[in-house]
Amino acid sequence: MKDSDTLPRFVARKRKVLVVDDSDVNRRLIGIIVSREYEVIFAKNGQEALDILQDSPGAVSLILLDLIMPVMDGYAFMERFLGHSGQYGKAPVIVLTANKEAEVESLRRGAVDFIPKPYDFPEVILARIRRSIALEEDTTLIRKNEREPLTMLYSRNFFMEYVRQRDLDDQNTPMDAAVLTLNRFNMIQDIYGPGFVRHLLKAISDEIRRLLPQDHCLASRGEYGSFLLYHPHRSDYDIICNEIARKVRELTGNTRFNIHVGVYENVSKDMDPEQRFEKAALLCYDNKTSYKTGCYFYNMEAHEKEMYNERLILMMDDALKDRQFRVFYQPKYEIQGDSPVLHSAEALVRWFHPELGMISPAAFIPLFEKNGLVLKLDRYVWTEAAKQIKKWYDTFSRKIPVSVNVSRVDIYAPSLEKELLALLSANGLTSDDLLLEITESAYTTDSTQIIETATRLRSLGFRIEMDDFGTGYSSLNMLTSLPIDALKLDMSFIRKMMNSSRDLKLVKLILDIAKFLRIPAIAEGVEEEKQCQALRKMGCELIQGYYFSKPVPPEEFEALIMKETGIPA
Ligand code: C2E
Ligand code: CA
Ligand code: CA
Q: Quick one: average pLDDT of 92-118?
């Protein structure tokens, strides 16, 4: 036996065509033509055909039907067959007839085509059969795949295609691309299991259908508990958001799960639909840590901001080379003595752009933190600051310690310690001269890495100030074990403390925590005398803020040093 004899033979399925005709001759004639490409089965009348179809519904790809037959004629057959697809399956019907009027009537009753008798052109007959089968199969495929079976919303590819078609049909109506996400979907899956999640997704899609009429809204299910909506512009997505959140809470019995909706309003129809929904989804992603149900919008304003940000990113390298970034210094004063004494400074970067003017770090630092550019910028600032400390030392014989901001991203740089040590040695400084500020939220979100890095830095002698304290929600328990040398109270506390006794008590409490940890507290954002006095009374050691000075260029800072040391300006 040859190998090939034992192997299964995979032959593409030959489609079946059912020929229904009472005339032996006609059956034979059409059978010869059709069997060139198809498997042919025969029935002598409508009833026989129905019996065959009922035996294996869906097995027949096409029916060639004579109209005039005994027992059950073609019209009666069509009525039964086309009206009961559940019982007989679906297949296109082509009518065989010599009568013009019958052609029209049979099309009206649901036949897809007709073949005139006599059968003079076998090629034409086969072409018609082929086309009808292909059309039917395409339609079935579309019907099967158009909707996602769980939610019966459009499946993604169809959805995107229908979005494109909607735009072609109507260029003028402003449309919104919205992405609705079930926040913390993974957690819901873990807690409730896949069966419940399916139930939940179905319930959400039912709500979507209820809240957004299908004739206006195209909807599809996205990944990870998200839904895509394409809808004429509206401004009340918060209602939809809240209704769906209510449903989710009702079903989960948990009030902590929430819904985020990202809306790209009045989409640009030049943009590919996939991209529009990416923009909307990004809004949800950017806000995924929010614990509140809410809508986020991308609109012209956001678009312009994005363009502006893009520009900043593109210009950053050249700007560094052109020295458009300048480091300003803001003094910190010690206030517990008889009169305030200049203690140290914080280095704060500014971008002087030839066309855009002075750009605040608040506009570019968070942006550069996202894409890692901040690594380069911070090194530039640290280098400038180290040189500046040396310069002041050379000029005034006095070391002014300067703290620099260390970004969350910097913490992960393997060469961080080496670079900092190199800066010290290049400028003849010690680790007492260059202080490091790390924001509290970095401690709470990347705690393991930060604690490791901070511990190593401290073992090299560096001192670390915890910046923006009070915004990162460290636990008291955590604080006692953290490697830190000073607490910088976030500005928001100082701003509120004179107006509310509760906030004043909170500041007192934070100062007590610092005392308990035996580290100094620095109050930031102090603008008024009375704030300064209150902080002094509560035992705060150091103050930084407009009350003493805004961040100033190094030349102006020198005036502060001279005033302090009694050198006439
Ligand atoms: P930060 O580290 O919390 O810096 C303090 C901010 O408060 C500075 O804003 C400072 O100008 C401002 N400030 C100080 N005193 C007062 C006051 O009395 N009133 C008011 N209203 N504001 C005051 P700035 O310079 O705009 O910097 C914003 C943030 O940008 C900084 O917050 C810091 O997170 C970041 N940043 C600045 N320079 C750098 C840098 O070189 N590297 C990194 N990674 N981040 C930087
Ligand atoms: Ca800082
Ligand atoms: Ca701060």
A: 89
pTM of the model: 0.66
Block residue for tokens 């290049």: 426
User: Which protein residue has the closest C-alpha to ligand 1 atom 19?
Assistant: 525
**Using CB atoms within 10 A of its CB, is residue 310 exposed (0-12), middle (13-18) or buried (19+)?**
exposed
Report the CATH fold assignment for 156-298: Alpha-Beta Plaits (3.30.70)
Radius of gyration of the CA atoms of the chain, in A: 38
> Which tens digit of pLDDT belongs to each residue from 510-541?
999 999 999 999 999 999 999 999 999 999 99
Residue 434 vs residues 253, 301, 431, 453, 535: alpha-carbon distances, Å: 53, 40, 6, 16, 26
Structure tokens at 471: 């915004």
CA–centroid distance, residue 348 to ligand 1 (Å): 6
85 confidence band (pLDDT: 50, 70, 90): confident
Select from 364, 365, 556 the residue to mutate for testing ligand 1; criterion: most ligand atoms less than 8 Å from CB. Answer: 365
Which of the ligands is closest to the CA of residue 408?
A: 1
Percent residues over pLDDT 90 in the chain: 75
pLDDT band at 117, cuts 50/70/90?
confident
- What is 11-146's CATH topology? Rossmann fold (3.40.50)
How many residues make up the chain in this entry? 569
Terminal-to-terminal C-alpha distance of the chain: 108
* 70-92 per-residue burial string, b: 16 or more CB within 10 A, e: under 16: eebbbbebbebbeeeeeebebbb
The first and second tokens of residue 328, run together, are 């300003």
Under a CB-based contact definition with an 8 Å cutoff, are residues 177 and 264 in contact?
yes
Atom 20 of ligand 1, residue of closest alpha carbon: 525
Strands 175-182 and 226-232: antiparallel
Side chain identity, residue 37: E
More confident residue, 408 or 550: 550
Please report which ligand is nearest the Cα atom of 545.
1
What angle, 0 to 180 degrees and rounded to 10, lies between the N-to-C axes of helices 361-371 and 300-321? 80
| Domain residue spans of the chain | 11-146, 156-298, 312-563
Token pair 């992960």: residue: 412
Mean pLDDT of 308-332: 97
* Residue 530 backbone dihedrals phi, psi, to 5 degrees: -65, -30
CA of 73 to the centre of ligand 3 (A): 89
> Looking at ligand 1, which residue's alpha carbon is closest to its atom 29?
362
* Arch. (CATH architecture) of 312-563: Alpha-Beta Barrel (3.20)
Q: What mean pLDDT comes out for the span 179-206? A: 92
DSSP reduced 3-state for 509: helix
